[in-house]
Automatic annotation (TrEMBL):
One of its GO terms (molecular function) is GTP binding. This is Rho-related BTB domain-containing protein 1 isoform X2. It comes from Castor canadensis (American beaver). The keyword Hydrolase does not apply. Signal peptide: none annotated. SMART domains: BTB (SM00225), RHO (SM00174). The lineage of its organism: Eukaryota, Metazoa, Chordata, Craniata, Vertebrata. Residues 272-304 are annotated as: Disordered.
Length: 643
């Protein structure tokens, strides 16, 4: 035998079936590969009962060598020995050739799709040589037993001519047909969720240092000014939540007209004045964070040439409401980053509140983190006690007692409370400072949270775009439900579980806002819904076809791959119901369908050939049996009955 292994002699015990009777045989196998044909001159080649001639279906040259060299050599040295042609590596017909080539040796010749031989090529050569043909795959464990069983049958049939008196040889069947190999269905691709981007903590700390879109101004010791954001403070501290909620209930629409007038005047001045020297004469502004002795916001507005109109602000005393606070009022102030005028809530703190510990407290409210190397822990503990922030007070005590490891549970509880309050503010629109005008309604949101959660939003609200100065932003071609889902994700980094929207609309919006993590979550949600519908017996073929190219257009590559897999593995049923839709797909998709459809085209052709030849053999066997029955000897004739 010729097998693609090492040049060794082995013994195999094979059970051959001959007309339902089992006969045991010991087959000795030796291999001539990769030596030259002179190996056939070895003595053990002279008494070979059968030769199995192998080639690789991924190497057309090996099949050519079967005709031009190997078969001629075999017939020269073993003229009466039967030959069986075997095509190896059948699994390469449906394998991922890119993965196969990556796993091979670096200098190995890569396998190309055009190198894979169809079954009819090997069958044509076998028919030309007059020998049986089989295919095998060691990877799938297919065809190996067929090769050995039928090789033994071929050897026994050739021996039957010389040992015709042996009765068991008369019952041996000729080599049987091999049923075609149906490759297994490829498993559906798994939707992989990339690691969630760690946005929020660092951005929140940066936003505190560079207070873009600030709406709160704390005045400490009548000279230190600290800008902050209500949404971060209110969602992190119940004390600040009650403070700002009290302010919202008293005058929710305070100075909207003044704010819009100042913003429009500023925008007109920036539009009309295009001389760069004019801005240079004004000189750069110094932020309160850069200099402790900075001037007041009124001086900054005067340096910009802006006059704040309106009566004197109404002071609201807070000394009786809580310790640490003196009063608060609303006032038009200039933002130190954007240099725009806007309404701010000015809160004057008690003289006992020191700037350093208070800034550390704000940093904790923004990020939920407390530095163990903080210098003034005592002052921080006092301010936390005054402002009723008991979780921060407990964390400081743990650090002072060298039990900082206990702060992990406190930090987790802090983030859970903050997330729940953020959801509440989003659903109710509390402390919102921007409204998105959509096709079917409006959705309120918070600029500071959006800036820290999305680069797209940070560019829109933190740059020189017109939307950064407006409280209303128009977003065309977006519905309210999709926008609400995107905001839920930006605030919580999770996809809302009870979504009743079109996944493709959410994917399109997430791709528009440059949110790949949300795209992956929406893809996973879409696949789960489609799978659930398919399990319940609902046909999803039409929906998958409509999803395919839209998913490809909106960079939902994982959903597109899943749709391609579903169409290919159910190609016959999909094509029978949606032939026009299949033909209308792009040329690239149609090529993919033809290459990865299941069952593959080569299998369908082989199945047709197998069934046709099987019927022909059955007819031949029936005719042969009738012929044998007529040739039976008869020693007397039955005479008719005598009446």
């Amino acid at each position: 035998m010729l097998l693609p292994t090492k040049n060794v002699i082995t013994s195999l015990e094979v059970v051959a079936h001959a007309n339902h009777s089992q006969i045991g045989y010991i087959s000795g196998c030796f291999d001539s590969f990769p030596h030259i044909p002179s190996v056939l001159k070895k003595p053990h080649c002279y008494w070979s009962d059968v030769v199995v001639l192998c080639f690789s279906i991924a190497n057309p040259n090996s099949l050519n060598h079967v005709k031009t060299m190997w078969y001629q050599e075999i017939k020269h040295f073993c003229p009466r020995t039967p030959v069986v042609l075997v095509g190896c590596q059948l699994d390469l017909r449906y394998a991922d050739l890119e993965a196969v080539n990556r796993a091979r040796r670096p200098l190995a010749r890569p396998i190309k799709r055009g190198d894979i031989l169809p079954p009819e090529k090997g069958r044509e050569v076998a028919k030309e040589l007059g020998i049986p043909y089989y295919e095998t795959s060691v990877f799938d464990q297919f065809g190996i037993k067929d090769v050995f069983d039928n090789a033994i049958r071929a050897a026994l049939i050739s021996r039957r001519h010389l040992q015709f008196w042996k009765s068991h040889l008369k019952k041996v069947q000729k080599p049987l047909l091999q049923a075609p190999f149906l490759p297994p269905k490829a498993p559906p691709p798994v939707i992989k969720i990339p690691e969630c981007p760690c946005t929020g903590t660092n951005e929140a700390a940066c936003l505190l240092d560079n207070p873009l879109c600030a709406d709160v101004l704390f005045i400490l010791q009548d000279q230190e000014h600290i800008f902050a954001h209500r949404i971060y403070l209110a969602t992190s501290s119940s004390k600040f939540y009650d403070l700002f909620l009290m302010e919202c209930e008293e005058s929710p629409n305070w100075s909207e007209g003044v704010c819009e007038e100042m913003q429009s005047r500023e925008f007109q001045e920036r539009t009309l004045s295009l001389d760069p020297d004019e801005e240079g004469e004004r000189g750069p502004l110094r932020t309160p964070q850069a200099d402790e002795g900075t001037s007041s916001s009124k001086d900054m507005s005067e340096s910009l040439g802006l006059e704040v109109e309106g009566a004197a602000p109404e002071m609201q005393s807070l000394s009786g409401w809580s310790k640490g606070f003196i009063d608060m009022h609303k006032e038009m102030q200039v933002n130190p980053i954007s240099k725009r005028v806007g309404p701010l809530m000015v809160v004057r703190m008690d003289s006992s509140v020191q700037p350093g510990p208070f800034r550390t407290l704000l940093q904790f409210l923004y990020t939920g983190q407390l530095d163990e190397k903080e210098k003034d822990l005592v002052g921080l503990a006092q301010i936390a006690e005054v402002l009723e922030m008991f979780d921060l007070r407990m964390m400081v005590e743990n650090i002072m007692n060298k039990e900082a490891f206990m702060n992990q549970e406190i930090t987790k509880a802090f983030h859970v409370r903050k997330a729940n309050r953020i959801k509440e503010c989003l659903s109710k629109g509390t402390f919102s400072d921007v409204t998105f005008m959509l096709d079917d309604g409006a959705v309120s949101a918070h600029k500071p949270l959006l800036i820290c959660s999305s680069e797209w939003m940070a560019a829109m609200f933190g740059g020189s775009f017109v939307e950064s100065a407006n409280s209303e932003v128009c977003l065309p071609s977006i519905n309210k439900m999709s926008m609400q889902a995107v905001l839920d994700y930006l605030y919580t980094k999770q996809l809302s579980p009870n979504l009743d929207l079109d996944p493709l609309e959410l994917i399109a919006l997430a791709n528009r806002f440059c949110l790949p993590h949300l795209v992956a979550l929406a893809e996973q949600h879409a696949v789960q819904e489609l799978t659930k519908a398919a399990v319940s017996g609902v046909s999803i073929d039409g929906e998958v076809l409509s999803y395919l190219e839209l998913a490809q257009f909106h960079n939902a590559n994982q959903l597109a791959a899943w749709c391609l897999h579903h169409i290919c593995t159910n190609y016959n049923s999909v094509c029978s119901k949606f032939r026009k839709e299949i033909k209308s797909k792009s040329a690239e998709n149609q090529e993919y369908f033809e290459r990865h459809r299941w069952p593959p085209v080569w299998y369908l052709k082989e199945e047709d050939h197998y069934q046709r030849v099987k019927r022909e053999r059955e007819k031949e066997d029936i005719a042969l049996n009738k012929h044998h029955s007529r040739r039976k000897w008869c020693f007397w004739n039955s005479s008719p009955a005598v009446a």
